[in-house]
Every structure is written in C-alpha cells, then in structure tokens.
Amino acid sequence: MGLNDSDYKKTLTILVNTKYSRITVHKSTLNALGLPAFIQLGYNSNKKRLMLFGANNQSQNTIRVVLKHNSFCYIHSRSFMVGLMSVSKALKKDGTYLLKGEMDKQLSAAYFSLDNAERVLESTDRGN
C-alpha cells in the first residue's frame, strides 16, 4: 500500500529527551517513513536538522523499530544525543522537546528543524 501526497503533508512529530538520551518517534512519523523495520539516525549540522531514515534491512548504523502500545517507538543513544546537543543551542541538558518535521521524498527521510524545538513537560517531569 503506497502513501499518497496527503500523507506526506501531515506534520510529523518526535520528542527528544536529553535527560534520558531518548527519542520518541510517533506513529504518524513511522507511517510516513513506510513503517520501517529499522531506523537510521542522522543530523545535518549546517542546516540544524535531525534526520530519520527508514530501512527494511539491518545494517551497522540502524536501530530496530519496536512499537510500544502500537503507537510509538523509543530510540536510545547517548552518543547521538551529545552530538545533537552540540549542534543545537535550543536543546538543553535534562529537557524534553517536541520537534515538528516534514518528509523529504527525494531522500525518503523525515527531517526535523532543531531551531524550532519546543520545550514540553512529560509526565515524568511533572512530579506529584
């Protein structure tokens, strides 16, 4: 089943949690990537973008997609998070940020601007 143009125009979202070195990839983003079995992470330091590439085969730099509650997946990488924070002045230590992105059809990748990161509170950050 192929994706039509309206699927690509939907806003894609991820959460970046710098405290736990975790990226939460939401279902809409996974759908736009074609529900891949693996994801490859990257960032463009010049354009200040985080990139997600979907892959159906495992390679050295891919991470297996394991759906939680059939709606999102977590990606944990301390080294990637350190690199990401060095590229973006918006991402601070011990914060959670919502990133909105778009699909790049030519690259078959989702990209997210680091300059537009919105600080949010996750339930674990709210306390009692």
Short summary:
The protein has 128 residues and is an alpha+beta fold. It has helices spanning 5-9, 27-32, 78-87; strands at 12-17, 22-26, 38-44, 49-55, 62-64, 72-76, 96-104, 109-113, 118-120. Mean pLDDT is 87; it is low at 1-8.
> Could you state the order of secondary-structure elements as H and E?
HEEHEEEEHEEE
Percent range for β-strand residues: 35-45%
What share of the residues lie within helices?
10-25%
* Main sheet properties: 9 strands, antiparallel
Question: Ends: how far apart?
Answer: 45 Å
Number of helices: 3
Counting DSSP E segments of at least 2 residues, the number of strands comes to 9
Question: Which stretches are low in confidence, meaning pLDDT under 50 for 5 or more residues running?
Answer: 1-8
CA-based shape = globular
The pLDDT mean sits at 87
Explain what the structure shows.
This protein is of the alpha+beta class and 128 residues long. Helices cover 16% and strands 39% of the residues. It is built from three helices and nine strands; from the N terminus they run αββαββββαβββ. Strands 1, 2, 3, 4, 5, 6, 7, 8 and 9 form a nine-stranded antiparallel sheet that branches. The radius of gyration is 14 Å and the shape is globular. Residues 1-8 have low confidence and may be disordered.
